[in-house]
Design a protein that fits this description.
single chain; 263 residues; alpha/beta; 5-stranded antiparallel β-sheet; 8 helices; 13 strands; globular
């Protein structure tokens, strides 16, 4: 078949959120697809510095990170865009002023507050990243770093709307549910990242296949003709899903590739 470019979300798609591992069936399927001449890319909300080590070791064709704000094709950086330092400081100050909590995500590292959070999800992420040596060198309060996007948590004690209004001029807040918002620079998304790769490689839209499960995959599902949702996926993806595959842990990626004749 014609060469295809495959774009994969990480968490809940390649990486099981139950086992925190990439199933062997997925690794085998990716290897077979590339052997058949297809291209395979990570397309993630994670910034490059916070990629799971196993995804970097996979030796894929490229990495689209931070919802399209950093794009690496082979060894070439095609795009890299950061929040300006002054604007980044303003946003951090607003997080505190509005009584939100969260973390800043940069190409080099992730940045947590030096205070213990009232949100257990944040403390769980802090522990997870610390095991990889991330999020321990510099605290948000130091404000002497550059970052690309952020994740914020809100509750009844937060002035959520004031914060969302404050960032709305240049940031888009993706609602991840339960008061969690993934805040991404406007004009960048998983879809714009795919478009950069398409232009670089001269690909047509019908050569693009996307695989995902969550609301931050929406832009690439809206863009692609061939959109594969994992069995467990956000309902917002439904109108744009061409094929629903099995669970990550049950060979869902391999099954979807077989469905399309990619392997």
């Amino acid at each position: 078949m014609r060469q295809a470019a495959l774009f994969f979300d990480i968490d809940g798609t390649l990486l099981s959120e139950k086992t925190r591992e990439i199933p062997e069936s997925t690794l085998d399927a990716l290897g077979a697809a590339r052997k058949n001449g297809h291209l395979a890319f990570i397309n993630t909300g994670r910034t490059y510095g916070s990629l799971p080590p196993e995804t970097v070791r996979m030796q894929l064709d490229g990495y689209l990170c931070g919802c399209g704000t950093y794009i690496l094709y082979q060894d070439e950086v095609l795009l890299e865009n950061h929040i300006s330092k002054d604007r980044g400081i303003e946003i951090i100050d607003c997080i505190k002023r509005c009584n939100l909590e969260g973390l800043c995500e940069g190409t080099e590292d992730v940045y947590f507050s030096n205070r213990i959070s009232r949100f257990e999800q944040i403390e769980s992420m802090r522990r997870y990243f610390a095991l990889e040596g991330l999020g321990v060198e510099c605290a948000m309060e130091e404000k002497n770093f550059i970052y690309d996007k952020l994740l914020v948590y809100t509750d009844s004690r937060s002035d959520k709307q004031t914060f969302l209004d404050f960032i709305s001029a240049d940031m888009e807040a993706i609602d991840r549910g339960q008061g969690i918002y993934e805040c991404v620079q406007k004009r960048y998304s998983k879809a714009t990242g795919i478009q950069v790769i398409m232009e670089r490689l001269g690909l047509e839209k019908d050569q693009v296949y996307v695989f995902g499960d969550s609301s931050n995959d929406l832009s690439m599902f809206e863009f692609a003709d061939h959109a594969v949702a994992m069995e467990v996926h956000d309902a917002v993806l439904e109108p744009y899903t061409e094929h629903v595959t099995g669970k990550v842990e049950e060979g869902g990626i391999s099954s979807a590739m077989e469905h399309y004749g990619l392997i």
